[in-house]
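User: Structure with pyridoxal-5'-phosphate, tokens only please.
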Amino acid sequence: MIRIEKIWRDVLMQTKATEPSFLSGRVNAYYQRSKDPRTGEHFIEGLSPAEGDIQLVSNDYLSIAGHPDVRGARIAALEQSENEMLRSGVFRFGEDSQCVFEEQMADWLSAESTLLSQSGWSANVGLIQSIATPEVPVYLDMFAHMSLWEGAKSAGATPRPFRHNNPGSLEKLVQKHGQGVILVDSIYSTSGTICPLNDMVDIAERYGCILVVDESHSLGVVGERGEGMVSDLGLADRVAFRTASLSKAFAGRGGIIVGSKRHVEYVKYESFPSIFSSGVHDYDIAGFIAAMEVIKKGNARREKLRDNSDFLRQQLDKIGFDVSASQAQIMSLVPGPECETIRLRNALESRGVFGSPFCAPATPKNRSLVRFSVNASVTRASLEKVAEVCAEVRDVVQADQWLSTTKKSRTRPQPKFYVPEPSLAM
Ligand SMILES: Cc1ncc(COP(=O)(O)O)c(C=O)c1O
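Assistant:
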């Protein structure tokens, strides 16, 4: 108790007398949220990994960041970059390398057009800001990525959240509030759950809504040539917009917006991040063009990713962690309260296993978690070690008492990776 008081005294003492209350209120809320009141430890900043430690933290799911074609393309472009013109992407048209990339991407995704953005965040915020208005209801899955929520805010629209992966809940809201924009992720970034896309498309069509699917975690990973879940399900013509971060399977720094020619040109010249923020470097674009080819031929990597994910999920399930919601390469241990997640993080890291801790605002409050992102190159031995360590810490962190574990007894786990029909099964 004395220690807690001291930590709070320290934080509050740092408050500058000149700091207005609207700022000190927010800053203090941050300190309250992000540090363990018992120990003062930061929620995100744990140990630094040592050599040999296992890190399931990267979104480079296919493990292509170091691929010689991708690195080679980036290096070659960098070496020719002395005359690179740094400017907003709206000034890039015609034969420009950005347009070459965008055309190849559209072709691959069975779309009319794509637009390269600086990041997945910019793509989502810019797109929603361009297509919604304050009068338009924006229907969001409760687990939709924060950038989609921010896009709704940027448009001044009223967010209308529906229950996670629950088409019935969405339909009721649409019946009540009318035509609008529906925002979903194909694979959700902290739970690894998969969106029932066919149902979402049906509702969007039935009520004349615009459906936006964020494919950040499925692009490159799902489909015969990694073309994502919308294409793989044959829905390319029925989904108005797709977006994706290129910082996952594309192992770079960028984002895309995918849609009809008419809409994509409009968004290019209407979206604020597109107009008012500088575009992507030539060497990144060269890397993306090379990565696309590696990804198209990456069936062996996709298969390895699926095997690795299934293996770890099954191991965690056997030990008694509830990862049954996950159907993909993302799976999370969910202690709930922030201080419990810090305890789990410490227990894992001190034994050489690193995941990514997530807390509010990335998760709902009291639903903080440690996320494991599996990749194609992690070895079976490393995954066994992860499972061993998880088994070892289970009692240390009192996982039996987590809400996510106790809930497990009421639900049937169904470990399953998304298997595209029927191509990847070979
Ligand atoms: C589903 C989803 N959309 C968008 C983003 C934002 O992407 P970026 O990191 O490229 O800004 C992320 C990244 O965490 C994400 O998981």
